[in-house]
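Deviations from the work plan: none for this task. Representative record:
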Amino acid sequence: MTSLEIRKIDKFYGVHQALFDVSLSIGKGEFVTLLGPSGSGKTTLLKILAGFETVSGGEITLDGRNITELKPEARNFGLVFQGYALFPHMTVRENIAYPLKVRRMPRDAVATRVREMLDLVQLARFIDRKPSELSGGQQQRVALARALAFRPDVLLLDEPMSALDKKLRVDLQEELRQIHQTLGTTFINVTHDQEEAMHMSDRIAVMNHGRIEQFDTAFALYRHPGARFVAEFIGKSNIFPGELTREDGGSAIFRAEGMEMRLDAGSRTPGAADLMVRPEDVLLGTAPAAGRVNLPAEVLGSTYSGDRALYALKLASGRALSAYGAARSGVHPEGAQVFASFSPEDATLIG
Amino acid sequence: MSKVVYWVSLSFAFFFLAAPLLIVLPLAFNDSSFLTYPMEGFTFRWFGVFFDTPPWLSSLANSFKVALGTTLAALLIGGLAAMGVMLLGRWGRIVMSALFVSPLVIPSVVLGVAMAYAFGRAGWGGGYLSLVFAHTILAAPLVFLAVTTSLMGLDPELDRAAASMGASRWRRFHTVTLPLAMPGFATGALFAFITSFDEVVVALFLSTPQTQTLPITLFSSLRDRLEPTIVVVALLLSIVSCLFILALNRLQRRGAGR
Amino acid sequence: MPKLKNSQIAALTLLALPVLVYLALYLAPLASIGRLSVDNGALSQRFPALSARFGETEAPDDAAAAALLTDLKAMARTERAEAGRLFNQELGGMRSLIIDTGGAATQIEPTLSALTAFDPRWGEPAIWEVVRRNVEPITWRHFQRATGLKPSAEGGFEMSPGDDVYLRILLRTFVIGLQVTALTLLIGYPLAYAAATGSRRVQAVVLMAVLLSFWTSLLVRTTAWVVLLQTNGLLNGLLMWLNLIPEPLQLIFNRFGAVVAMTHVLLPFAILPMINVMRTIPAAQTQASRSLGAGPVESFLRVYFPQSLRGVAVGGGTVFILALGFYVTPALTGGPGDQMLSYYIADFVRRGLNWGMAAVLSIFLLVCVVALLVSGALLRRAFGWSRSSAASGGTG
């Protein structure tokens, strides 16, 4: 099932280490995103996959074949560049035909494939334009068509949307997702935009400081972050440092300042632990709610965005808490005393 | 007050820069053998003198021959040098660039003496070959600079893109790098042609009466006596320069257009 | 890394031909100038016996006379003429002495007294001294003549009055270079300022004029000045028509003509670097200075001008270095007292066929240019002006 296997990759630039023991197993036809802040090593990893950077240690295999030392031109990986990298002296047709001519494909087969690719990205009428005559979004789609024209084993996308405006980005995400489903090629996308990652990907590898923090589906990353970095990087979160203890019956109890609750902790060992609650799981009320963990809080302020309001709250312990509240009948005023409550089922232990 | 000073000095400077040629060149059509105003009538007869009196026409032909040969040789030498230097490391690049550009700062008379002596000893003296050799050394630095500039302006991602699509190093070079550096080569070729076409000093040391170029003929007749034909030659040479600037302008506009 | 090796091989392949061509057509000829400046092969090879004799003892005796006659007899007539010509460069009258003695060499007995009897000049030690110095394979006579410094009898060097003629020419070359540099900067500054800060139309017009001038043949522009400045020329005509002068002024074939024409020819080389630098000075800075209460003149002098000095330095340096090597323009517009070093270099080759002197003076010029370039580079580093902004290229 696994087609692309990345094993224990290290990368040094002089004494600086950019990647630490990176391993990923990517299935055939999967859409994987490398997500992380700048400097997290995601672009370095992509360049290693494309063959433009060498590894300091570890190996990469494709269907069991070791490709670690293969030159870029021998890999048969498509690559969509951040700045598109369309050849300015060639028309759209010539750009897309380029990898096919390199592969000595017969002339009429080239013409057919170019048409096919342009239909795929819906740019057939621009076939004889020069790249400088196209808009940014159109150039991006030509770059995509070009990178897919030779049926690469893997398509690598290096922050493909970063130069586009938000509306266009959303359209293109949807289009990319559909193309992926049509072709069934393995896609590996690099981005720092978590929304883009969650919209498109089957699985997301969250990277930080040259390490993979967690590699999982968007749902798992959001609901069950494996690390504090993941919890904070993806979505908004409230994190309570506390302590986990176990009773004789095996059920676990989490204690933090001002709260105590029983929860399902799996096989986790007792000790210091962080508890995460998403702001949308916190309810605000004027009285304590039954069956939930209740925390008295003071409203510091709120940001109203129509469908809901995001509250900044201060707990009795002095800690900050954020919560989304329905705002149909007006918002809680600043300084109001409220009860913030959440269900233990919505709370997750991190790590 | 300061505005007046600025405009007066600007007008004087501009007049000094632009007026001499504008005043003198129309005298090529003056129907008088004296080079003075007011013009005594409009005539093309000095052009006739140019075409009928040796060695004007033959030296014009010589100039074209030498300039064309120089352009080809300088394109080859300067182009290869520019592409090779791009592949060197930092220090190699600095040292080799200094070598390839250095003929620009060597006084022409010194080059003339050195080449006249060395080429004479090597048995190349006198012919077109020695002129083309000498002008190639003067023109190759300009081709080198023009091509280097255009190669430095290339987006390195384009080469990577071609590699990711399976193109070998050589294929990437001749399908991506070379076509994109073409404006640099074209600019370099123009520089080389005009440099050779206008060159006086080195040619003075190397040319014989048979290979005498137009600037040399102009130089000797200027020392001899002033006649309207001289202004005709100056006008023709200026027209070549104007055509050159037009071509250069077109090239730059095309370069910026994409 | 194997990748690096590949690109090095590619670099070597590409650079092989250019480097070979530069070596053969450029570096080797330049190096031959160094050899030429001290080479005496033309004489030493024609006098093998005499050269060997002087290797043993320097005294002009019978053996020396015999060796001299042997060498002269071995030479063809044209060779003797050439040798005589070369000796004549050293001391007047040597040419006829060598040719006459050579012509009669078979009839003269190989003794010093017979030689002196044929021509009394062979009795003079000074003649023999000249002969001895000039049959050695290496000679410093060109350097001695160019600097005016000769080895004195007490050891060390001495300079006789009037022998500093080439040092004076070098000094004159520098003076003309400075005059031209000052004028180009003075005239070029307002043009560069207009091309960098003027309205769109002013910028376009000025820049076009500068570029046209830059790419118009140097010879054409010099021609224009020859036509303008001659005694019956346009400028004199205009001045007389305006009743400013009663009779034509001598405007050409003197320092005025040479400096004016050179200034015009070199003007673009001063302006282009200045434009490059001035374009990097934001207009907002002068506006800021005005808003802070400084008048236009004060704003210019205290804010704009200091920042533009980098361009002035680069432009001035370029003009000065190019001016030092000028030949064509001063040759056509200057008088005998306004010729620069290049003129004498060309003159030695074209008229005297004295390659040795031409080579020595070329070395002078090269050393000056290289020294200026190096000090310019050091100055630039010292001031932190590492961003290059010079446009250069052109011919003297």
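Chain B touches chain C through 88 residues (CB under 8 Å).
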